[in-house]
Every structure is written in structure tokens, then in C-alpha cells.
């Protein structure tokens, strides 16, 4: 929504007493009709019922202490927070609670790389070794930056190997790495791939990666509550994460962590990012071009199309078809791909999504540009991807069926 439209925010909180869990029993619903006198709005109570019916069973099944759903519909925002950000403090989740978003961070890294290209600092069709001379003579003479942003560099591992503890060791590892597949022939989801792209983009912009994000990208995006390193005066907003064994955990720093999965953000900021990807906020021209460029379709993966980190499906889509793009085989395996020639220009009539996880957090973002409809789902418990996608699908498809007020 344009910045000129800044309405009063009305917050409604509801206490649900029927759930026996001490953490799931407290359900906070914050409905935010951004424009008080706008055209017909969906019924807030109907939205509440829809989101409750999807989120409450999910939280109960996986023992999720806290979660929040943010919805953008026709330029209006709604936030539905549930439960607590910490079992110890029992602070309620709010729209400003900071969550780790895991691999959704990669979409920002891809945006930064495209921003560097628009600014004339790099060319994404160039080979990696052109920007990292220490990799000359390696497999990266044949891998371009687009391959890094589309998981098609070869069979890089999911994680940076444990033996790699600094950038010098990382470069030695990359120098020695021999791919099993030629670039552009297989999709292998890999943190080292997008991490390397982030290193190059920041280098070409003359900044460290954290500075490029926190001082260049986030401010231009209007994201005022997003961090790689959460400052001390914001730690009270930082949710405590819980792993699958219900142990309290937060993200440990590591090589390429910032570039691949390190962002902590709020539902407000992440939903705004979704809206910018749907071209709903005025942005500097270079940044809008960069965001649009992340939605070019480069590879046909069969069940979906690989953009720059973002993944898209034809819309409308059945749930079972959507879930085929989130199987263990697709996430952890090597999937043959076909290059789209020429690359597919961004289209509005698509389902676009990305999942993200850390040891103690789980997140999902999905949106349908043609419907001006988007959703973020954040929680402070790690749980599987398919139920995340299923809940997101239930909410977004349910919203399309709600009557206007």
C-alpha cells in the first residue's frame, strides 16, 4: 500500500479458553484494517475463523509455542498472532516479534545480487571465477552467477562442510570441489551456492554482506525491524526458538550463514517484502528492477519453475500438485532440470512461494500476484515443510472464497 495511506490501526484480542494447553490456550488475534473507509473489505471475523481453523490444529499437533500469520489482501494487512514468543517469559507473540526465517533469507540475497547488477557492479551471466580470481582453474570457470541463484551449480552439498570454519578454508574447498553434474543440468538445493552469490554481490558493492543488507537493502525496502545481528535493544523482541525435541535453540553463526539463512525479521517487515514483490509499494527504480528480476523463470523442474530462489507454480493449483515441489527428493536430492529459453518473464497468474527453517524456527511465504493476495507464516518451533505448505494453502485458498463486507 502506498505510504501516503497510513490509517489508524485497530487491534482486537481474543482469549480462547477451550484449548487445554497452557501455551496454545492463549490465542491473540490482531486484525488490522489499514484503510478505514476503503472499498469493501473481507469480514474480519470470517478471516479469524479461517486462520484459527488452520493454525490451532497445527500448533497443537507439533507443540508450537508461538506463531503469527500475516495476510495482505488487496493492499490491506491483517495480523493474527498466537501463543507465546518464549515459554520462559510467556510474552505474547505480536506483529513485531522477531523470528528466524531460515532460507527465506535467500530471496533477499538474490535481490541484492540483482541490485548489484542493476547498479552496474556485476553481470549475472558472468562466471563465478571472474569475481573470485582465487577460483580460476576450478569448476567455477563454468558456473555463472545465475546458476548460484537457481540451485543449478552442480551437486554442492546442502550445508557448508563442518571442516570449513572461515572464508579462506571456504575458497580452498570450492577450488577443490568437483561437481558430478554440469552447471544448469540438475537442481541441488545448497546453502554454499547462494552463500557464494551473497559474498560476490557484497564484494562488488564494496560492503560487507551484513552492511549491504542492513544499511542498503532493508532501508530501501522500508523494513525497519529486520536484522542479521539482532541489536541488544531489540533482544526482548527476539523469539526463543525450539527444536523438534522442544529444546530452546537459536541460530549459531557459521560460514555463509548470513548469506543463506541468517535473517531475523517481523511479520510486518516480511509481509511488506511480499507486497513489494507484488509491486505494491513505491521503490527506487533500481531496487524495483532488482526485485522483478528475481521472478524470471530460468529452469523447468517438472512440478514447478525455478526463479532466482523463489519457486512458482501455475495458478490455480491443487494442493497435491503444490506438495510435489516440497518433497524430500526435491529438497535434498538432485533433480534434472531443463533450461527455459528464453527465460520466462515474470507473470502475475502464479503461485509463488518459499519455505525457510532453522534449528528452532519454521517459516513459509506464499503469494498470488494476480489476486493481490499474500501470506507469511512464522513460528518459533521447527516442524516439517508439508504441513506448513498445507496450512498456507488452506489459508490463501480460503481467503479467495470469503465474501466482501
Task: Describe this entry's structure for a reader.
The structure is a single chain. This protein has 405 residues and is an alpha+beta fold. It has a domain at 108-204: Methane Monooxygenase Hydroxylase, Chain G, domain 1 (Up-down Bundle). Helices cover 31% and strands 18% of the residues. The protein has 12 helices and 16 strands. The chain has helices at residues 44-62, 105-118, 145-149, 167-176, 191-204, 209-221, 257-261, 267-277, 285-293, 319-323, 328-332, 385-400; strands at 66-73, 76-83, 99-100, 186-188, 226-227, 241-242, 248-249, 264-265, 297-300, 305-306, 311-314, 334-336, 338-344, 350-357, 362-368, 373-379. Strands 2-1-16-15-14-11-10-9-13 form a 9-stranded antiparallel β-sheet, sandwiched between helices. Strands 3-8-5 form a 3-stranded antiparallel β-sheet. Strand 1 and strand 2 (76-83) form a beta hairpin. Helix 1 packs antiparallel against helix 12 (385-400), helix 2 runs parallel beside helix 5 and helix 2 (105-118) crosses helix 9 (285-293). It is globular and about 60 Å long. The relative contact order is 0.17. The model is unreliable at 1-40 (pLDDT under 50).
Set out the fold topology.
Elements: H1 44-62, E1 66-73, E2 76-83, E3 99-100, H2 105-118, H3 145-149, H4 167-176, E4 186-188, H5 191-204, H6 209-221, E5 226-227, E6 241-242, E7 248-249, H7 257-261, E8 264-265, H8 267-277, H9 285-293, E9 297-300, E10 305-306, E11 311-314, H10 319-323, H11 328-332, E12 334-336, E13 338-344, E14 350-357, E15 362-368, E16 373-379, H12 385-400
Antiparallel strand pairs: 1-2, 1-16, 3-8, 4-12, 5-8, 6-7, 9-10, 9-13, 10-11, 11-14, 14-15, 15-16
Helix pairs in contact: 1-12, 2-5, 2-9
Amino acid at each position: 500500500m502506498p505510504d501516503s495511506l497510513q490509517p489508524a490501526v485497530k487491534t482486537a484480542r481474543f482469549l480462547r479458553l477451550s484449548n487445554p494447553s497452557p501455551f496454545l490456550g492463549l490465542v491473540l488475534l490482531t486484525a488490522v484494517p489499514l484503510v478505514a473507509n476503503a472499498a469493501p473489505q473481507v469480514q474480519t471475523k470470517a478471516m479469524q475463523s479461517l486462520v484459527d481453523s488452520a493454525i490451532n490444529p497445527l500448533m497443537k499437533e507439533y507443540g508450537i509455542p508461538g506463531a503469527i500469520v500475516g495476510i495482505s489482501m488487496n493492499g490491506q494487512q491483517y495480523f493474527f498472532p498466537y501463543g507465546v514468543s518464549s515459554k520462559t517469559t510467556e510474552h505474547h507473540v505480536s506483529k513485531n516479534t522477531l523470528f528466524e526465517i531460515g532460507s527465506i533469507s535467500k530471496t533477499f540475497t538474490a535481490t541484492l545480487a540483482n541490485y548489484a547488477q542493476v547498479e552496474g557492479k556485476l553481470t549475472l551471466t558472468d562466471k563465478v571465477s571472474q569475481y573470485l580470481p582465487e577460483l580460476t582453474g576450478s569448476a567455477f570457470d563454468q558456473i555463472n552467477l545465475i546458476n548460484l541463484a537457481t540451485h543449478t551449480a552442480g551437486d554442492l552439498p546442502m550445508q557448508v562442510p563442518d571442516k570449513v570454519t572461515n572464508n579462506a578454508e571456504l575458497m580452498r574447498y570450492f577450488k577443490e570441489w568437483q561437481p558430478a553434474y554440469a552447471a544448469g543440468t540438475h537442481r541441488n538445493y545448497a546453502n554454499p551456492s547462494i552463500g557464494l552469490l551473497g559474498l560476490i554481490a557484497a564484494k562488488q558493492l564494496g560492503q560487507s554482506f551484513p552492511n549491504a543488507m542492513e544499511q542498503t537493502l532493508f532501508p530501501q525496502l522500508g523494513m525497519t525491524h529486520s536484522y542479521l545481528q539482532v541489536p541488544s535493544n531489540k533482544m526482548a523482541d527476539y523469539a526463543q526458538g525450539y527444536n523438534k525435541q522442544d529444546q530452546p535453540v537459536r541460530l549459531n553463526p557459521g560460514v555463509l550463514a548470513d548469506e543463506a539463512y541468517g535473517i531475523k525479521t517481523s511479520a510486518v517487515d516480511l509481509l511488506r517484502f511480499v507486497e513489494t514483490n507484488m509491486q505494491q509499494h513505491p521503490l527506487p527504480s533500481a531496487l524495483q528492477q532488482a526485485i522483478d528480476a528475481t521472478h524470471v523463470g530460468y529452469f523447468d523442474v517438472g512440478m514447478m519453475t525455478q526463479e532466482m530462489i523463489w519457486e512458482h507454480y501455475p495458478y490455480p493449483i491443487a494442493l497435491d500438485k503444490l506438495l510435489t515441489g516440497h518433497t524430500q527428493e526435491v529438497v535434498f536430492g538432485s533433480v534434472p532440470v531443463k533450461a527455459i529459453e528464453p527465460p520466462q518473464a515474470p507473470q502475475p497468474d502464479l503461485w509463488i512461494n518459499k519455505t525457510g527453517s532453522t534449528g528452532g524456527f519454521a517459516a513459509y511465504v506464499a503469494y498470488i500476484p494476480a489476486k493481490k493476495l499474500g501470506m507469511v507464516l512464522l513460528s518459533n518451533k521447527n516442524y516439517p515443510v508439508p504441513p506448513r505448505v498445507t496450512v498456507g494453502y488452506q489459508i490463501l485458498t480460503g481467503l479467495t472464497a470469503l465474501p466482501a463486507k
